Amino acid sequence: MPLSPANAFYLMIGLLSFLLMGIDKYKSVRKQWRISEITFMGLSILGGAPGVLAGMLVFRHKIRKPLFYLGIPAIYLFHRALLTPLLLRILIEAGFGW
């Protein structure tokens, strides 16, 4: 079953966010130029919060920063609270509901 464009977008931005967390951790350990925190916040707002969260846990990166351990889950919950009801309404109006 092919992915819808919206699901493909969320999958791609999630993977990108996860990979960038890994790259930033790699660069952090080697004291190299880093990816800015605002980049991760922007990706999260666009839908990449699950990827950033996964990257935080897998790479143990930015887990002590309140902006990340509070902000990223808040962005994720906001997305869920906003988009889930909207999607359900669209499905119900399209005849796929209960």
TrEMBL record:
Protein name as annotated: Uncharacterized membrane protein YsdA, DUF1294 family
Segments passing through the bilayer: 6-26, 38-61, 67-92
Keyword terms: Membrane, Transmembrane, Transmembrane helix
